[in-house]
């Protein structure tokens, strides 16, 4: 049964500060309207009415009430209730209004204590851009001076777009902000608001509204306290967006309302009591994701691309549906979900009797289904901890919460299944194989379905179908089990069905919503809003960034891994050069746990910033990188990207370029802050290599990067940091230029590879000198040097082979050739001395890229 008051509290929370945007846009309010509403909604302090933005909030709801679902404005009483909920958050009277007031304060965090009164500042709010949370993070407690002028990175004011998520250096460019920019934002927002779909279903409509707010308010600062030239951070904290503040307020308000309603304590004293354990934080983690995605079978490689695409998407779906099941068990809405990315979600629920038992039921129900379908390959771990509102207001509250969840999460990793319930094998496992052979794709489940010319299981067929349709469909619909006609034939968790469709189908009402739970626009961020030519209107749907970019051919057909490897071949003068091979890339952010736990300045450690940091990191991976591939790297296939990591496949040479681009873009995205680094592992392979082996090899490559110093990449078995990687790219350009001008020949390249081995051995011996002499004595060290003495002659070998192999023609005279030989020798000697084994990266790239393709084995 719908709780209409809960829905109104959610909507009022989402809109309670919308007036700030209008106030900063200098939208005029009628004098009569002001005089009639000032006393009702604005606090009166120090001789004047403060918090004028609440009047704009009230005006917005009254102006657009016809565009709200009926439950919010069916009667004048309903509308007034909603208006008062949203407008009285600084002057609350009813219990529901007090709930939103408290949620607003808790969402803002402890920095709002002592600043309930407005503080006059020298700079107008409309001229203050949103600060970038990444800039003021430190792993060494070396934060910048706590003054606004110490920071230089801000976001341009405007709607969400792949370009807009990158901060602007205010010392280099003027920040886009001010009254006119706010007015443009208001105009676009209103147009989209009027066309929100599904007014007949309040929860669907609220989901659409939430994404609309994210789109338009992600770069609007939330702070009500304006800054002066010398105002310290504790007075101005505009590094949390208005959207994040509104959403977190709705989450807290939902939990508070349900808690006080169910405990029959809907009174002022109880609501404002911050020392009761009113909240329950619930964290869910999916285990075995990598094994799930990269499981192999006899026919896996033939269907690798679409299968990986479908499996990766299914991981996201399973995480969303597991979260949905918990919400259903606890009778919560999706506005209780703080985040759900990369197989991990966090829910803020009320701490009510019976909820722990329901959580255990949910965990068992989810794991039972996973066990029956994946035989222990993947599972979910649910942990929880209670919390008091006071923790939102203490500077140690956020840190203590993370510690509690972290400890439980570590313990849960070692008990992924309840062995008393799920030990052994499923009872009907062998019965299911009666008359059925193992699935050709996973090799685990009975093959009961047909896929082209071989038999597969229902799960793998679903994964292949999803993988095929994902490149053609841009809408995900989740149904309850009563919906008969869906793309997916699997009944997830015995409750849900999913289907992929087109956005235009929902716009033109071709999708009945009778059994619909949620609808998501999963299109890539190439088109930021949905433009359907119907009465020149623009429609906006709830967004979910869980789709991936897929390379296609001229007929829009997805490329296979074999076809991707062919794109590494380049033609020149009717001749083909290069090798047919794939590049596999895995990257993830370094030290993320430490960043969340200790990276934020102590006086700024709030739950809001934790959520902002999580969401903005995810935006880079799940929102921006697919866009980057579509725009600049159309042959790079996104297996998965989200949270804080990525897994990509593409032509071996293009993937190396892509890795460099990601490292540079991530540095730009995080304000060039040394606290944020990213590590990568790379593998060059033939497309026939089994998927599981590809995964293990690239995982080992990434592991090597982490062990050798992070903040870099391992290529061809060699770790280099990113600065070295960029330098080696310049060396490659120079060497390739010499080769293409026929100054260097292939024999010289292969001799350089021989010399490189000598360099590596000699450098390794010298690195081991101190340790060897300490453990085995001086004689042992010199004995080892003597046995490998030849390796120290590499400079003379370099000189000999270079002089011998440099072209003797093409120069004006002998002196010019001698000068070129000297230049090449100096360049190569410096490169080998400085980079050692790292020199293999440019050298092997040139050898592979310049190889005649006719020499390649097919």
Task: Describe this protein's structure.
There is one protein chain. The chain is an alpha+beta fold and about 850 residues long. The chain folds into five domains: about 5-260, no CATH class; about 275-430, 2-Layer Sandwich (Alpha-Beta Plaits); about 450-540, no CATH class; about 560-715, Alpha-Beta Plaits; about 730-855. It contains 31 helices and 24 strands. The protein has a six-stranded mixed β-sheet with strand order 20-21-19-22-23-24. A four-stranded antiparallel β-sheet has the order 7-8-6-9, sandwiched between helices. Helix 13 runs antiparallel to helix 14. The longest helix has 27 residues, at about 305-330. Mean pLDDT is about 90; it is low at about 110-120, about 225-235 and about 525-535.
As for the number of domains, it is: 5
Shape: globular
Order of the strands making up the biggest sheet: 20-21-19-22-23-24
Annotation field: number of helices:
31
Our Rg estimate from Cα atoms comes to 30 Å
Query: SS-based structural class?
Result: alpha+beta
Low-confidence parts? 111-120, 226-235, 527-537
Kindly estimate the percentage of residues that lie in beta strands according to DSSP. 5-15%
Secondary-structure map with pairings?
Blueprint: H1 4-15, H2 19-24, H3 31-41, E1 44-45, E2 48-49, H4 53-63, H5 70-73, H6 76-87, H7 95-108, E3 130-131, E4 153-155, E5 168-169, H8 179-194, H9 202-217, H10 242-262, H11 268-271, E6 279-287, H12 289-293, H13 304-330, E7 337-341, E8 344-350, H14 355-374, E9 379-387, H15 397-413, H16 419-422, H17 429-432, E10 449-451, E11 454-456, H18 458-470, E12 475-480, E13 496-501, H19 503-507, E14 516-521, E15 530-531, E16 538-539, H20 561-566, E17 570-572, E18 575-577, E19 582-589, H21 592-599, H22 607-632, E20 637-642, E21 645-651, H23 652-669, E22 678-685, H24 691-708, E23 712-715, E24 718-721, H25 722-740, H26 746-767, H27 769-776, H28 778-787, H29 794-805, H30 814-835, H31 840-849
Helix pairs in contact: 1-6, 1-9, 1-10, 4-6, 7-10, 8-9, 9-10, 13-14, 13-18, 25-31, 26-29, 26-31, 27-28, 29-30
């Amino acid at each position: 049964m719908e709780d209409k008051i809960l829905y109104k509290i959610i909507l009022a929370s989402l809109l309670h500060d919308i007036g700030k945007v209008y106030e900063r846009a200098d939208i005029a309010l009628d004098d009569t309207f002001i005089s009639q509403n000032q006393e009702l909604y604005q606090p009166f302090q120090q001789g004047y009415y403060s918090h004028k933005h609440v009047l704009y909030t009230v005006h917005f709801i009254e102006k657009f009430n016809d565009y709200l679902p009926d439950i919010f404005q069916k009667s004048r009483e309903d509308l007034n209730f909603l208006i008062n909920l949203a407008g009285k958050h600084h002057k609350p009277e009813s219990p529901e209004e007090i709930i939103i007031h408290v949620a607003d304060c808790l969402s803002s965090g402890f920095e709002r204590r002592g600043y309930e009164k407005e503080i006059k500042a020298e700079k107008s709010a409309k001229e203050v851009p949103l600060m970038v949370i990444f800039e003021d993070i430190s792993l060494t407690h070396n934060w910048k001076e706590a003054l606004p002028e110490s920071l230089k990175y801000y976001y341009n004011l405007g709607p969400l777009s792949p370009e807009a998520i990158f901060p602007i250096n205010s010392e280099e460019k003027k920040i886009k902000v001010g009254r006119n920019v706010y007015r443009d934002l208001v105009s676009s927002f209103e147009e989209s608001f009027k066309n929100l779909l599904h007014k007949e279903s309040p929860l669907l409509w609220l989901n659409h509204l939430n994404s609309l707010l994210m789109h338009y308010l992600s770069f609007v600062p939330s702070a009500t306290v304006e800054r002066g030239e010398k105002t310290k951070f504790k007075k101005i904290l505009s590094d949390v967006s208005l959207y994040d503040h509104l959403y977190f307020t709705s989450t807290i308000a939902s939990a508070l309302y349900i808690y006080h309603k169910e405990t029959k304590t809907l009174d002022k004293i109880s609501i404002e009591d911050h020392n009761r354990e009113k909240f329950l934080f619930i964290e869910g983690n999916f285990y075995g994701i990598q094994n799930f995605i990269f499981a192999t079978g006899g026919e896996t490689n033939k269907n690798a691309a679409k299968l990986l695409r479908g499996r990766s998407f299914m991981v996201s779906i399973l995480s969303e549906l597991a979260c949905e099941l918990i919400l259903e068990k606890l009778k919560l809405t999706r506005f209780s979900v703080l985040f759900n990315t990369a197989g991990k979600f966090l829910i803020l629920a009320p701490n009510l009797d019976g909820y722990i038992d329901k959580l255990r039921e949910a965990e068992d129900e989810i794991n039972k289904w996973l066990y029956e379908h994946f035989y222990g390959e993947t599972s979910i771990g649910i942990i929880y901890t209670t919390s008091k509102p006071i923790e939102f207001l203490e500077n140690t509250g956020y840190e203590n919460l993370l510690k509690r969840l972290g400890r439980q999460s570590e313990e849960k990793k070692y008990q992924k299944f309840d062995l008393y319930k799920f030990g052994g094998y499923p009872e009907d496992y062998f019965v299911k194989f009666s008359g059925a052979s193992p699935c050709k794709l996973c090799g685990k489940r009975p093959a009961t379905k047909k896929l082209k010319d071989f038999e597969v299981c229902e799960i793998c067929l679903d994964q292949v179908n999803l993988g095929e349709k994902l490149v053609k469909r841009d809408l995900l619909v989740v149904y309850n089990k009563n919906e008969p006609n869906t793309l997916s034939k699997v009944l997830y968790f015995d409750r849900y069905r999913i289907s992929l469709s087109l956005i235009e189908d929902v716009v033109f009402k071709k999708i009945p919503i009778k059994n619909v739970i949620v609808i998501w626009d999963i299109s890539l961020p190439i088109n930021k809003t949905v433009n359907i030519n119907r009465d020149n209107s623009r429609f906006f749907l709830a967004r979910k960034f869980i789709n991936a970019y897929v390379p296609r051919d001229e007929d829009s057909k997805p490329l296979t891994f074999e076809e991707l490897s062919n794109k590494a071949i380049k033609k020149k003068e009717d001749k083909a050069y290069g090798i047919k091979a794939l590049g596999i890339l895995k990257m993830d952010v370094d030290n993320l746990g430490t960043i969340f736990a200790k990276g934020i300045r102590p006086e700024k450690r709030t739950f809001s910033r934790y959520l902002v940091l999580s969401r903005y990191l995810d935006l880079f991976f799940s929102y921006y990188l697919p866009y980057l591939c579509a725009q600049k790297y159309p042959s790079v296939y996104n297996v998965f990207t989200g949270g804080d990591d990525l897994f990509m496949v593409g032509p071996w040479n293009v993937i190396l370029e892509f890795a460099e681009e990601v490292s540079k873009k991530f540095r730009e995205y995080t304000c060039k802050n040394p606290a944020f680094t990213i590590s990568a592992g790379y593998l060059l392979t033939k497309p026939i290599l089994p998927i599981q082996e590809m995964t293990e090899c690239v995982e080992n490559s990434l592991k090597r990067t982490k062990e050798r110093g992070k903040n870099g990449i391992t290529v061809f078995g060699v770790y280099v940091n990113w600065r070295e990687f960029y330098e080696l790219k310049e060396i490659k350009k120079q060497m390739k230029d010499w080769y293409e001008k026929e100054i260097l020949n292939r024999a010289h390249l292969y001799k350089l590879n021989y010399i490189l081995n000598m360099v590596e051995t000699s450098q390794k011996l010298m690195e081991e000198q101190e340790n060897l002499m300490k453990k085995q004595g001086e004689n042992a060290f010199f004995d080892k040097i003597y046995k490998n003495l030849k390796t120290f002659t590499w400079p003379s070998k370099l000189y000999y082979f270079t002089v011998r192999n440099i072209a003797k023609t093409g120069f004006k005279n002998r002196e010019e050739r001698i000068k070129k030989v000297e230049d090449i020798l100096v360049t190569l000697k410096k490169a080998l001395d400085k980079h050692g084994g790292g020199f293999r990266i440019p050298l092997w790239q040139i050898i592979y890229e310049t190889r005649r393709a006719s020499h390649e084995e097919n």
